[in-house]
Design goal:
The protein is of the alpha+beta class and 409 residues long. The chain is 54% helix and 15% strand. The chain has a four-stranded antiparallel β-sheet with strand order 4-5-9-8, covered by helices on one side. Bound molecules: flavin-adenine dinucleotide (FAD). The site of flavin-adenine dinucleotide (FAD) has 20 residues, from strand 3, strand 5 and helix 12.
């Protein structure tokens, strides 16, 4: 088991510098354009694919880094480049993780390559869980999956919302209710293969930030998928449902199992690392500006009022990274999240990104408020981190309930 360390090894440094080069030379120059266009930056994803940054192999390598620092390091560098473009690059990973977590080896081998495509013909994938009436409250999900035994097909009906890459994805992973009596334990995940009739894109959202990332509704109308598209297979689902029914009978209710919570705890630090990347980017712009902008005959950083803000910004960013790295190390080495350390890292890092990007605008004064400088975009982008993958309020709820030893519903 790897000891916790703050020293990146030579391989990690090499990967970090390579990612940083791509972020600096390819993502940064394209950031403002794709933010204005509010479109998926296909040419940038293709560039990433050509050099191996947009591929399952690369993320798998980082995921299996025994120190646990591979994924946070990757997220920080890409989101330091630009959050909207970075989400377009890593968004497919959300769906891929859904398949890896629940699918059979055959399903992983069949669908993951179709999610990424190849460098000449890149594809993206979408993970569709949220619904108009089921955001934080996942158990309120209504999209139904009904088994047609005669044809060995599942029939999906419902409307998903806020899906990253929804409607433009080659492969959609859709979470649906198979047994409404069981709340969130009655859910299952399905692959919807490319060009399946009945799946369509609903409204595409015009967003406050991360505008280069496509977010849309996904409408499912009598979508028929083969039995083989149920992730994990029917036998495993039947077994799981039978266990849940037994527990419900015994008064187990709809409590989220520890295993499910552990998965969230393990994935949340990755979002924290994205937030650290955006915060660091804004801090660096503000620091440079404060050293060169002169007012009253001296650089504005000579004023304590400005210098102390920068000191606080940097301190918060470093603290956020430490929480993220700790939680990622715990996830990789199998340490139990007894105090919801994964949620802590996401909570603190996301709030840090919002605060620090706002401070950066203040330090740049009027320039900070314009689109001539990137901190305005970074501040808009940063607002997402306190919302997706569980809002800040939900993180606090999870932390508080974990500390109190109370069940998490
Ligand atoms: C850009 C973007 C991309 C996204 N990508 C995806 C994706 O790819 N796939 C996907 O499935 N989903 C995605 N989401 C959805 C995202 O995960 C949800 O927006 C999030 O879970 C919050 O749900 P909601 O928006 O319905 O807010 P709500 O759950 O309605 O919450 C509204 C407010 O009430 C608060 N609140 C709710 N319940 C409680 C409580 N018990 N205690 C205290 N406060 C509470 C919340 O914290 C929030 O402040 C995305 C969202 C956005 C904006």
């Amino acid at each position: 088991m790897a000891e916790f360390t703050l020293d990146l090894n030579d391989d990690q440094k090499q990967v970090r510098d390579w990612l940083n080069g791509f972020a600096r030379d390819v993502m940064r120059p394209a950031a403002a354009e794709w933010d204005e266009r509010e479109e998926t930056p296909w040419p940038v994803i293709q560039e990433a694919a050509k050099i191996g940054i947009y591929s399952l192999d690369f993320y798998a390598q980082q995921f299996f880094d025994p120190t646990g620092l591979g994924i946070p390091m990757t997220m920080e560098e890409l989101f330091w480049g630009d959050a909207g473009i970075a989400l377009s690059i890593v968004g497919t990973g959300l769906a891929a993780v859904g398949v890896i977590a629940n699918g059979t080896e055959e399903q992983i081998g069949t669908w993951i390559p179709q999610m990424y495509g190849d460098a000449n013909d890149v594809k993206v994938a979408a993970f569709c869980s949220s619904e108009p009436d089921a955001g934080s409250d996942v158990a309120s999900m209504r999209t139904r999956a009904v088994y047609d035994e005669a044809k060995d097909e599942w029939v999906l009906n419902g409307t998903k919302t806020w899906a990253t890459n929804g409607g433009i994805a080659n492969v959609h992973v859709v979470v649906a209710v198979v047994d409404p009596e069981l709340g969130s334990k009655g859910h299952a995940s399905f692959i919807v293969p490319p060009s399946t009739p009945g799946l369509s894109q609903g409204q595409k959202f015009k967003k406050h930030g991360i505008r280069a990332s496509h977010t849309a509704e996904v409408v499912l109308e009598d979508v028929r998928v083969p039995g083989s598209c149920l992730l994990g297979g029917k036998a495993k689902l039947d077994e799981r449902l039978a266990r849940a029914r037994e527990k419900a009978k015994a008064g187990g209710g709809d409590r989220v199992k520890n295993a499910a919570m552990a998965t969230f705890e393990a994935s949340r630090p990755a979002v924290g690392a994205m937030a650290v990347g955006t915060a660091r980017a804004a801090y660096e712009v503000a620091l440079d500006y404060a050293k060169t902008r002169e007012q009253f005959g001296r650089p504005i950083i000579d004023n304590q009022g400005v210098a102390f803000q920068l000191a606080d910004m940097r301190t918060r960013i470093d603290a956020a990274r430490l929480l993220v790295w700790r939680a990622s190390w715990m996830a990789t080495t199998g340490k139990p999240f007894t105090s919801a350390e994964g949620s802590m890292s996401k909570l603190f890092a996301s709030e840090t990104a919002k605060k620090v990007t706002g401070q950066a605008i203040q330090i740049l004064g009027g320039n900070g408020y314009t689109r001539e400088y990137p901190v305005e975009r970074m501040h808009r982008d940063a607002a997402i981190y306190t919302i997706f993958e569980g809002t800040s309020e939900i993180q606090r709820l999870v932390i508080a309930r974990t500390l109190a030893g109370m069940p998490i519903r």
